[in-house]
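User: For a benchmark we're assembling, each entry needs the component sequences followed by a predicted structure for the full assembly. Here are entry 17's components. Please fill in the structure.
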Amino acid sequence: MLFNSLAYMIFLPIVFLIYWKSPFRLRTPVLLLASYVFYMWWQPIYGLLILGLTVFNYFYAFAVDRATDRKKLVFSLGIAANCITLGYFKYAYFVHDIASDASKLLVHKEIPSIPFDIILPLGISFFCFEFIHYLFEVYRGAKPVRSFMEFALFPAFFPTQIAGPIKRFADFIPQLHTPRNITRQDFDEGVELILFGLFKKVVLADHLAIVVNRCYAHPDLLTGADLWLAAYSFAWQVYFDFSGYTDIARGSAKLLGFSVPINFDLPFLAGSITEIWRRWHISLSTWLRDYLFIPLGGSKFGELVTLRNIMLTMIIGGFWHGAGLNYGAWGASLGVLMVAHRLWSKFYARNETLTKIIKTRYYHVLAVFVTWHFWCMSAVFMRAENPEKAFMVIRKLLYLDRIPDTSFFHASIVSTSDSILFQFLPLILIGMYAMQIVVSKSKETPGIMPALNLRLLGIPVFKPAYMALLLVVLFIWSPDFSPQFIYFQF
Amino acid sequence: MSKPKSKQVTDFLRDSYVAQGFLLVAAINMVLLLINPVGRVDPEATQSVRTWAWWAGKDYRQQKEPVNVLLLGSSFVMNPTWLNEAVYRNQDVDLVVDHRVHYLEDRIKEKTGLSNLKCFNFGLPGAMVSDQCMILKSMCKGDKHPDVAVLFMAPRDLMDCRFNNAGLSKHFRYLSKFTEDKDIASLQFNDLNGRFTDIFSNAIYFKTKAQDIQALAAQKVRTAMRPLVAMLPPSPLDQKSEEDRRNVFKRDEIEQGAWTAHPNTPYWYVDSSADCKHRYKHMNDEVYENQKKWLDLALATCRQEGIKPMIVHVPSSTVARQCMHEGIYERHAAYLEKVAREEGIPYLNLDPVWVHEKQDFTDWGHMSPSGGAKMLSALGDFIAANQELETALADSQTNRKVAGKDGGTL
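Assistant: Structure for entry 17:
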């Protein structure tokens, strides 16, 4: 079931009513049942996979907990089982293609094709990571979850099931033990998050996708300025698509009285790639830190090992997003930028004057500007269908490959006759950045905008008007068919 | 002691900004439903998504001379007619903008001696009888009515397990902008989802008028921006490539050149029986009964507009018959015969054995150019031999000559 579907808009209120009307002891079974209905809505057979993995990990965690002599081996086998499941469904075709190409090149022989279809189950990357995290924590000393029902709900919980945020069981399971009632504040915040998430998805991301698709259809015809506009648009498209999804997930969870972690914290205002990665898809970046970077040795074993670990973590993080060389290249490009930033940080830390400059506001603005452009450039690998296209776009972004008789700022896509969206694109992109700065400022200094607290006849005006405006915009500008969320494919 | 229910509700409405926002929208909505400030927007005056129905409708309305024979149906008639046209004319034919059927025109002319005949292919992919009815209701009014409307019907035109609600088809939604006929309202939705969507859309002014508001807003912005955009050089994105055309197709838009038939393209049979099985997996009585009512409405529209209708039973391949749930084919054939007999409508059953499967079909349902030629030859011969239809075409020519529109003088 898709969040941006009519089916979900009917499903959620039904679950909401049944859940809150049920006695406390029945709420977990109600949510579990609803989560399996949600998961099996499209392809019922997928339910068996998540159920099978749940049963396996539930019992296996006890084996890890009880193991004494060969605890590490038992634990490693459990991790391997989850990784093999993920690898089979997600990477079998990719590995086969790579092996086949290598075989053709080296021994001039083709490897036979996989004789059956492998369908990628929705959300597998997310719930496999939750299972791996669970086994890791049990191995590190946490007590396994006793109740199967509660454990089964942990990966299946429908608001976060398909595209996260990736939860931690120590945060989630205790919430099942706390009797509570829906509060007016939870209701308001939950609905607001859902509406705003839908707005981000159907109004912002889906419309920016039109620009991105058109530009990436034939980048050869476009100038560097055009492709910068396309690169900015893609960065915002992915951000609004995924943060919109997360908002709907968090809002849905809130309506059921649950708190799930945030995934984004104004990432495009970050002053370095390392910081942007801490603010972007936070539940994944912290997962990679805790269960990949640190187990690899983290930064404990000298500079070279640390740099190797950063690169490995980012490349694997890239491949987690998709079984394709372009995703690996995207992860690697971020890794290189992080390594460069780490070396630069070490360098300026030794120089007092440089350290002073770096602490100034001007440097911060420059750092945000540069970081944003590097991020947009690395995202080209994620969007381009193949490395050739990615490198062609990057050459043009760097103005190494110019179209004759065009100036530096020649942006020809704004004159296309197709959609008014193209003509307004520079203004839309500036507006989006301005919006982030306003949100950031109002977070730093609450009460900075007194208009937000305006009251009429004792009733606050701003929030109800904002809700009404969101609803009206969604009614008018939501298309009959909205493409699925980008992160579903991951 | 807990508060009384009414007090709880009042407190909730006083404190909840979400509830206040919803109430505000509900109040504005009530007012807008009453005063309807957007009103009726002329579908031709605003930009629409360029779907199959948009292109065919535009071409039909722009015909200077009235169409004599209008072919209605799904891609089962659209495809073979178009493919055969390229072979017959020995030139490329762009289906998106070229709907003339010269092959059929010449066949009828040859058999009847009539001249200046115009046949128009208004087949639309996935169209059901309800869509055929909407074409008649929206496009064939007044001086735009054809002399003869040929309703091509394969079993899937009256029931398709991939289809639920007439009112939710893309063709229907576009064509319904041209008519405010009350007859169609009660037949649009069969199932709960359809009825819910209908109630939801009609009760919310912003939803009902969403496309009109979008189109009007875009038009205003475009007009305001025109002087600025005129100063810029033309954009390379306006040069449509093959990839663009494929991309727009995914968004349900069709571009010129995306569907061009070439005269010498060889066609092979492709096995797509899984699709066939899915479409015919059960009797789907609900949709079938609903589409029968649409057929009644289509025939009533023809009578009202002075159009001579005829029904063609589109050939079903052996594969299609094998894939169908038991009884579908027999029910379909018997029903078409019954309607034709009871309503006194010319009826042509094209299902006999003259179709050579592999040569005449490109898959379980779509015919190849050779199949199309056989289908249209049989149709042309039938029209020429049927006194009622031949008279309708001949009378139309005489009337036009008398009116001085065809080189004649009063």
